[in-house]
Write a structure and sequence with these properties.
Elements (H helix, E strand, L loop, with lengths): L1 H4 L2 E2 L2 E6 L5 H18 L3 E5 L3 H16 L4 E6 L2 H11 L3 E8 L2 E7 L8 H13 L13 E2 L3 H13 L7 E4 L3 H12 L3 E2 L7 E3 L6
Parallel strand pairs: 3-4, 3-5, 4-7, 8-9, 8-10
Antiparallel strand pairs: 1-2, 2-6, 5-6
Helix pairs in contact: 2-3, 2-5
Length: 209
């Protein structure tokens, strides 16, 4: 099991090189996630960043979760922040966000509060992953349920939080997916994007939403 532990990072695990997604590992991840949810109860969800490798990994993982009899929402493409919001909005016990970073696929775990799950989850999931069992299609297997519109829901929630016009508010943002999404929402609320303004708030992808 030592080789499996090498895949883990602070908030999830690596799924191999982006150029060649590790299909066997993706299936094992889905099976381990399903085993955890069978003990805990609740539903799963998968979202990916829109890249082709992440899409392939997300579909393999979601299908293996469903084949094990656990309902899985397929949230489609989005950002980590959207995945966290969708996890809370739909109350999914375990959400997996898959993204391509630095030439490899990275998976992040989220609970129903949009946060990293508990240590008990880590132990249970690692145990399931180390068992190495292939997915077994059960009689109660279900297809992943496609869910669309999570970005619109997030935008509406943020606009409600803003509550009033931001006319005169200046800000800057980098080109990350999260920052660009926030830029669009702020501009719709009346804020002004100025890349070189000396007086501005600056948002980066690491800030989140």
């Amino acid at each position: 099991c030592q080789s499996i532990r090498s895949y883990f990072h602070d908030d999830g695990l690596y799924l191999g090189k982006a150029a060649v997604p590790d299909g066997q590992l993706c299936v094992r991840v889905g099976t381990a996630a399903a085993a955890y949810l069978k003990k805990r109860g609740g539903t799963a969800a998968v979202m990916y960043d829109g890249s082709t490798p992440a899409s392939l990994a997300a579909h393999m993982t979601a299908e293996s979760i469903g084949a094990s009899g656990i309902r899985c929402f397929a949230f489609g493409t989005g950002t980590y922040d959207e995945a966290a919001f969708a996890a809370v909005r739909y109350g999914t016990a375990l959400t997996l966000f898959i993204t391509e970073e630095g030439g490899r696929l990275t998976l992040y775990f989220l609970d129903e509060n949009g946060l990293y799950p508990s240590r008990s989850f880590e132990r249970s999931f690692e145990s399931g992953l180390c068992s190495g069992h292939a997915v077994t299609v059960t009689s109660d297997a279900v297809f992943p349920s496609a869910v669309t519109g999570t970005r619109l829901l997030l935008a509406a929630a943020l606009q409600e939080e803003i509550g009033s016009s931001l006319r005169g508010f200046e800000f800057s943002a980098d080109n990350s997916a999260s920052a660009m999404l926030l830029r669009r929402i702020l501009e719709e609320a009346g804020a002004v994007y100025r890349q070189n303004s000396p007086r501005r708030f600056c948002f980066t992808g690491t800030d989140g939403l």
